[in-house]
Specification:
- The chain has about 550 residues and is an alpha+beta fold.
- Helix content is about 30%, strand content about 20%.
- It contains 17 helices and 21 strands.
- Helix 1 packs parallel to helix 17.
- The chain starts with 13 loop residues before the first strand and ends in a 5-residue tail after the last helix.
């Protein structure tokens, strides 16, 4: 959606206050945020403290990849957990992060995150727009490690009635599913990440100190005497200049949609075309920071996920597999297909780049028994939509020989792989990859997973004691493609515990901050639990505002 003023050229600013003017038509604010995802929470924090706050959004809608998400945020020790009766504290979460990240250089960032997170949630819940967050039972992704918990530490925003936002509801980016396949119905409630963004937008504009400008892309940072004092941007083909009295906060997502950067830093990646990140995430903020001497970290990393290739030819973020197996180019199984998605994605990337065997894409092999139980691409009990077959996204074969030919793997290797898997299915124990044993496997696919069809209940049976290991022995067989996808890049500008952007010598660049996927994460190369990226974008934007005001968490 593009909103314009009367001359049909300039994006209409949504604002509660006007900017001060300077010579040359420059607009002056106290703080400028670049990006409108999780950083929009930080923009509210700034505006609620009386700062004239500008949010620049490159596209015609707010929310970025956060709007695509379920909206969960990983906040150990926060009030929503206590209200749900979850016995959790930041000390155990610190133990957990130290163990799984195992990187002393990130410990100060972790400590800042753990301290500020509960405080931020307490503050947000005092605002009528945010109301109360709710606990969601999602186990930590390494729940068996020291400090990990099977109950999890993830909280979610409540759904937001569209009428509360009024016409502003149209400003919030649709979910990824809706954006690709559905026409959104006017007046629908905002759920998941859209609810978080909608609530943050309402709170931000409701302060009377917030201005939002759409269709306005960052070009460069303005530096005077070594300090960042503003930004140059391009708006509908027109050069615009914004000065920031206190600071600029870069919260514009990662560089997942920039082919050149991905091919340079990520040899396993796909150039961006198979990303599930927002289309505007081309690394503008990262490039602007590098141009003025900022240091970077973990540019080879991404929040990798398996992506089930859809009838439109593009992958969709795949959270786990209840039946069938994935095989590589040698016809061999190589991973617990139900492993937490970031771990499964990283394993695909690692094996693809280190073994010389094709793993990206790999192939998901199912049989008629699973199709009868779960259907495919839709609700259990419903027939598979014909477009899956006509597009070639799901292919059918009567024999394993035909399956091997379809995916170009050795038939004897494939037959051996399936026979071995079937022994595990009948014993109930996956001796190779332990599918069905972890808290994540059991939570996602037993407690809140998709319901099973009437003929094949999810509860274990005598034929298969572990219902995530259903035998693969009932022709015809079916083949789908699983690509290496992501929900954003992970590396970015190097920051300290105050979200200040650093130079290679470790000195902070005055006036410049970064959060979310624009910054290298406190969690390093791992994904601690559901909502870590969103939680990080919120917390470090919050810490940036506190620092530029001379305060602390």
């Amino acid at each position: 959606m593009t909103l314009k003023d009367e001359d049909g050229q300039t994006p209409v600013p949504w604002q509660g206050t006007s900017a001060d003017s300077a010579e040359g038509g420059e607009e002056v604010y106290d703080v400028v945020f670049v990006g409108s995802g999780g950083g929009l929470v930080g923009a509210y924090v700034a505006a609620s403290r009386g700062l004239r706050t500008l949010v620049l959004e490159k596209t015609d809608r707010v929310g970025g990849t956060v709007a695509y998400s379920g909206g969960g945020a990983w906040f150990p020790g926060s009030a929503p957990l206590r209200r749900a009766g979850i016995d959790d504290d930041t000390a155990s979460a610190r133990t957990y992060l130290r163990d799984i990240v195992a990187d002393p250089s990130r410990e100060r960032l972790q400590d800042a995150y753990l301290k500020a997170g509960p405080q931020l949630i307490d503050e947000l819940e005092q605002n009528e727009w945010f109301q109360s967050f709710v606990y969601g039972p999602v186990p930590d992704y390494y729940a068996s490690r020291p400090g990990g918990t099977t109950e999890g530490r993830t909280i979610f925003p409540s759904d937001l009635p569209a009428e509360r936002l009024g016409e502003r509801a149209e400003l919030v980016r649709d979910s990824l599913y809706t954006e690709r396949w559905w026409d959104a119905e006017p007046g629908q409630n905002l759920g998941g990440g859209r609810a978080l963004i909608g609530r943050a937008l309402g709170a931000f504009l409701g302060t009377g100190n917030g201005t939002l400008k759409l269709n306005t892309a960052l070009q460069s940072l303005v530096v005077e005497d070594g300090r960042v004092v503003g930004v140059d941007a391009l708006s509908e083909g027109r050069q615009v200049h914004f000065r920031a009295r206190h600071g600029v906060i870069l919260a514009a997502g990662g560089f997942e949609r920039d082919r050149e950067l991905r091919e340079k830093h990520q040899p396993a990646a796909h150039g961006g075309q198979w990303s599930n990140g927002a289309p505007g995430n081309t690394g503008d903020a990262l490039k602007a920071g590098i141009a003025i001497g900022a240091d970077t970290d973990l540019l080879d990393e991404a929040w990798y996920v398996p992506g089930l290739v859809q009838p439109d030819g593009l992958p969709f973020f795949h959270t786990g597999t209840r039946g069938g197996i994935w095989v590589n180019g040698d016809g061999e199984r190589f991973v617990n297909e139900t492993r937490p998605y970031d771990q499964a994605g990283h394993e695909i990337a690692r094996l693809h780049t280190t073994t010389g065997v094709r793993h990206a894409p790999c192939y998901w092999i199912l049989d008629q028994r699973q199709i009868d139980r779960d259907s495919f691409g839709g609700a259990p009990g419903q027939p598979v939509q014909e477009e899956w077959f006509t597009s070639g996204a799901l292919r059918k074969a009567e024999t394993l020989e035909e399956v091997a030919k379809l995916v170009d793997v050795p038939v004897e290797a494939l037959r051996h792989t399936i026979e071995r898997y079937n022994t595990f299915a009948h014993s109930g124990v996956d001796e190779d990859f332990h599918r069905g044993e972890s808290a994540w496997d059991q939570m996602f696919h037993y407690t809140i997973g998709f319901p099973a069809g009437p003929n094949y209940p999810m509860q274990p049976t005598a034929d298969w004691p572990n219902s995530l290991l259903m035998p693969l022995d009932t022709p015809p067989y079916y083949v789908a493609t699983v690509a290496l996808s992501d929900i954003g890049t992970k590396g970015g500008l190097k920051t300290d515990e105050h979200a200040r952007v650093l130079r290679p010598d470790g000195a902070a660049i005055p006036g410049l901050y970064a959060s979310g996927n624009t910054a290298a994460p406190m969690s390093g190369r791992v994904y601690p639990g559901a909502g870590t990226p969103i939680g990080s974008s919120m917390v470090f934007a919050y810490l940036a505002v506190l620092d530029l005001l001379g305060a602390s968490a």
